[in-house]
Amino acid sequence: MNITVEVQSLSYRYNQTNVLNDVSFKIHTGELICLLGSNGAGKTTLINLILNRLTLLEGQIHVFENDINNNVKSSNSNVAQRIGVMLQDSTAPERATVVELIELFASYYPNPLDTEQLIIELGIKYIEQQRFGKLSGGQKQIVLFALALCGDPDLLFLDEPSVGMDVNVRRTLWKIIEELKSKGKTIILTTHYLGEADHLADRILVLQNGKIIADDTPDVIKARFENKHIKAISKLSIEQIQNLPCVSKAQKVGKFYEVITTNAQNTLKQWFVDDDNLLDLTVTSTNLEQAFIQMMQSDESDKSSDISSKDLTVTSTNLEQAFIQMMQSDESDTSSDIPSKTTSKTPSLNSTIN
Amino acid sequence: MLIQSLQRECVLELKLAIREPAFIIPTLLFPFMFYVFFGLLFGQSDSQSNNQVATYLMLTYAVFGIMGPSLFGFGANIAMERDKGWLAIKQVSPVSALQLMFAKLSSALFFAFIIILGLFSLGVLFGGVSLSFFTFVNLLFILLLGVLPFCALGMAVGFWVNGSAAIAIINLIYLPMAFLSGLWLPITMLPQWVQTLAQALPPYHLSQLCLNVIEQGLAQANWIHILALVISTAIFLAIAMLGYKRTNTK
Fold first, then answer.
1. Between B47-71 and B21-34, two packed helices, what is the crossing angle to 10 degrees?
2. Which residues of B touch A91 (CB under 8 A)?
3. Domain range spanning residue A153?
């Protein structure tokens, strides 16, 4: 498979802080990769470096086998003809109409798409004569998406494309992105919506503090996030807790056990069998932020048991109540199934990182 | 393809300017209004010298007039496009910076042309200005070329200052510079120190070039004025280029 983008030991410093720290990855032709990370993780800096909007200081970037370097302008203009870009925080002039903008941008490229057809495909025919400034946030995003597409590029950069889009517009966006993928286009997408990454990406790169802390398929990444925290007072020993099903980490903090499990249902089922007097039970979905923190910690050191108490302050009252109810009902029948209500809150990928 | 793209760029640039009342009204109205007030209504009893004043001020207000679309069209627009990220989208697209600047220049020239024609018509119709056709064409040519230093100055402001500050800063440059260069009142009516200062201001040199054509200038050599205009254009362009590089890599 051909490689469209190759980033090698890329570091970037700004005001003495490492924005990017030794980042390396390859993007194959036809791949859709998603850059995921909280604000300030370095996503936009990375994209700006690949686009040559920032001066490369350390490391190497190749796009279509062209060395991206501020000093080589000719190869950069060849690259520009083959890429389409949707930048974050970029808007078009308010007094230009949609069709004027798209036709202008199409004229920049050697082999542009048919603008009329593009407008119809994107479902923006009805607003084509409207001025950009009069459009809603989602409509503006779709028009900016059209500007990225109209040159029929081989490589697309979409920096948070779905911001401000309603469900229908987002669906159109996803549909078009999938069509582009099927045409063999390479796409780099950044998003806050894990659902979007899950739906579209072949691969997810997770950036945290300028480092790539995960580079895997959505399924693998998702599995990492599907942990739950259980906090409770129990008479069992720490060894017994660690041996409960699906427990990945357990520790005792004060009188509480803090447990991370890949499947709260299975863990708790056995826990209730072993200890029918579980007190102060709290089950928390690890949100993405926590998952990142965990990953970071396991990256930096091997303190595998680190779950800072901070991670556990966020609790879900509903789940707590559900478990209290369950405990009460368990007193009569310890082996009863955990009410389905408690499992309804699986950590869905729709949660946002931001 | 190149020509078609350039044409689209120029047409859209012009359309955007025309759709912006905050740009179009002051840039078109002020030169005409000022000329009518100070050049035509303030006339003297003696019709001979009256015509002379009308001719003199027609040219200095023409210089004032062409400065507006050049300074604002470049300065305020570029600053605004930078703020909105519109310039950034274009910078990562294959379009050349040259095309973008040419479109702005063509728009500035278009408005300059209207302003010059308007002032010439007012002068001929109401000020008794009588010059040969060749002289008019000659003046038109000088004035149109004369937009260049002001476009460069606008560009320098636009690439260094943000959108909201740009309009204020351009006004701070535009209006005092016009007055101190003797565009509103003849330079000879201004104090000596202003006349000395004016030697450093591009509008002074452009107005003197025009006035030399009708033999109402201060009789400095034309090459001095041309040299001054070329040097100031080069300095503004250099400042603008530094700013452009900075925005490109920001």
1. 160
2. 84-86
3. 3-223
CA distance B132 to A193: 71
Nearest beta carbon to residue B93 from set A54, A70, A80: A80
**pTM of model > 0.90:** no
What pLDDT shows up at residue B204?
A: 96
CA dihedral defined by B22, B23, B28, B33, rounded to 10 degrees?
40
pLDDT category, A339, cuts 50, 70, 90? very low
Instruction: Clarify whether residues A80 and A194 are in a common domain.
Output: yes
Going from the C-alpha of A252 to that of each of A255, A285, A302, A314, the distances in angstroms are 7, 19, 18, 18
What pLDDT was estimated at residue A315? 37
Is B5 close to A110, i.e. CB distance below 8 A? Answer: no
Among A189, A223, A257, identify where a domain stops: A223
pLDDT digits (tens, 9 = 90+) for A273-312: 888 888 888 887 665 545 555 555 544 443 333 333 333 3
Q: How many CB atoms lie within 10 A of CB A306?
A: 15
Low-confidence ranges of chain B (pLDDT < 50): 250
Residues of chain A contacting residue B86, judged by C-beta atoms under 8 Å apart: 90-93
Residues A147, A89, single domain; the answer is yes
Contact (CB<8Å) A104/B89: no
Please give the torsion angle defined by the CA atoms of residues A201, A203, A205 and A206, in that order, rounded to the nearest 10 degrees: 70
Q: Which residue in B86, B93, B241, B244 has the most chain A C-beta atoms within 10 A of its own C-beta, making it the best mutation to test that interface?
A: B93
Summarised one tens digit per residue, pLDDT across range A189-218 is 998 777 788 888 999 898 888 888 888 888
Whether residue A352 lies inside any domain: the answer is no
Distance, CA of A199 to CA of A189 (rounded, Å): 12
